[in-house]
């Protein structure tokens, strides 16, 4: 049987992983899974249950997660950013969520974005991309996503606040013992600082075509 085309996209917060993954999936006719939403859904459940995600095991919350839970519209708020990162450091939570992620793409392929897709979830992915940008560029993008008030007088100060939060979360994600944020050895890096989302998509498509072409002829 032909091996399913799996594309793993990892990188720090607000680098543009989701934007790229969604567009790449549409261009290639593959399903897309934003794996960060799994950890966000678990973090959300901890908050709703009044449990501290820094100290309380989140196994029960993780076990109950279904793909339909990822549709909730209250997952992309700052308190959930933090809660998601805290539950994501729990080994048991990660172990519970592995099958959902693998089953999503194992038969028909797919595009998944997160922190450990190329290192842990799909170490044999056909293509691995590590998408990065400077903290400043990422903070500006996230600010514009959340509150696109380009005229706000306190814009610079607010972006600096977002930058500090992103940096704290990246540091936590990169320094945790289980499945830390890092590029797989065979990942292709895309530094998106000076690139538009269109340019990033073009570059990713070029890498995918090259890799799948190599596989056909190799
Ligand atoms: O969208 P953003 O990059 O800000 O975050 P996200 O991808 O939604 O991920 C939220 C949090 O979930 C991250 O800070 C990580 O702690 C965790 N996460 C993870 O540990 N592993 C993944 N594959 C995806 C997310
Ligand atoms: O998924 P992740 O947290 O890595 O990032 P995202 O949610 O895709 O957010 C990236 C934001 O930056 C979106 O508003 C994009 O339109 C914008 N952006 C991008 O994704 N890529 C660029 N090269 C430039 C901007």
UniProtKB/TrEMBL annotation:
It holds the Pfam family Cytidylate_kin. It is found in: Cytoplasm. ATP binds at residues 11-19. One of its GO terms (cellular component) is cytoplasm. It is an enzyme of class 2 (transferase). It comes from the Bacteria. The keyword Cytoplasm applies. GO terms for molecular function: ATP binding; dCMP kinase activity. Its main location: cytoplasm. It catalyses: dCMP + ATP = dCDP + ADP; CMP + ATP = CDP + ADP. Residues 7-209 form the Cytidylate kinase domain. One of its GO terms (biological process) is pyrimidine nucleotide metabolic process. CDD domains: CMPK. InterPro entries: Cytidylate_kin (IPR003136), Cytidylate_kinase_dom (IPR011994), P-loop_NTPase (IPR027417). Coiled coil: none annotated. Keywords: ATP-binding, Cytoplasm, Kinase, Nucleotide-binding, Transferase. Its EC number is 2.7.4.25. The keyword Phosphoprotein does not apply. HAMAP family: Cytidyl_kinase_type1. Belongs to the cytidylate kinase family. Type 1 subfamily. This is Cytidylate kinase. It comes from Gluconacetobacter azotocaptans. The gene is cmk.
